[in-house]
Design brief:
3 helices, 150 residues, rod-shaped, mainly alpha, 83% helix
């Protein structure tokens, strides 16, 4: 939590780790569904080519599968949007923490760093590292989704 002149360090809550975990599960589900639909579309095309189904049946089934695929792609885009929003939030927190860290480093150089400030500085380093780790995980998930959905 950032206040006017210092960072009040709170225990890193599980907000982001819970979000990342849920997102990882949703990403896996979306990837599986999209792959399943593509497999079905490929098998359907094979059946048509082999002459094992009529063209009108092929078109009906293909249309239903394409509608389902569109639904999953929409969900994929929603997840990418949520990731982007969270990345912006994390970037802001990292920026604020780095700014405060810079202020404390200046205090340290001029010899005005008190014990509370020293603790805050250590806490800021930890916070920044954890935020960067979450950011990296989110970027990875976003790339997975983009690869699968586009």
């Amino acid at each position: 939590t950032f206040t006017a002149d210092k960072v009040v360090l709170q225990k890193f809550n599980d907000e982001y780790s819970g979000f990342v975990s849920a997102l990882r599960n949703e990403t896996t589900s979306i990837e599986e569904r999209l792959r399943d639909i593509m497999d079905k579309l490929n098998k359907l095309s094979e059946l048509l080519i082999k002459g094992e189904i009529k063209e009108d049946l092929y078109r009906d089934i293909r249309e239903r599968l394409e509608k389902e695929r569109t639904k999953w792609i929409r969900q994929c885009n929603d997840k990418i949007s949520a990731i982007n929003d969270t990345l912006s939030e994390i970037d802001k927190k990292i920026s604020d923490a780095e700014k405060r860290k810079g202020e404390l480093m200046i205090k340290q150089v001029v010899g005005e760093l008190g014990d509370d400030d020293k603790n805050e500085l250590v806490g800021l380093d930890d916070l920044i590292n954890r935020l960067r780790k979450v950011r990296s995980e989110l970027l990875s998930l976003r790339m997975e989704l983009e690869k699968e959905c586009y």
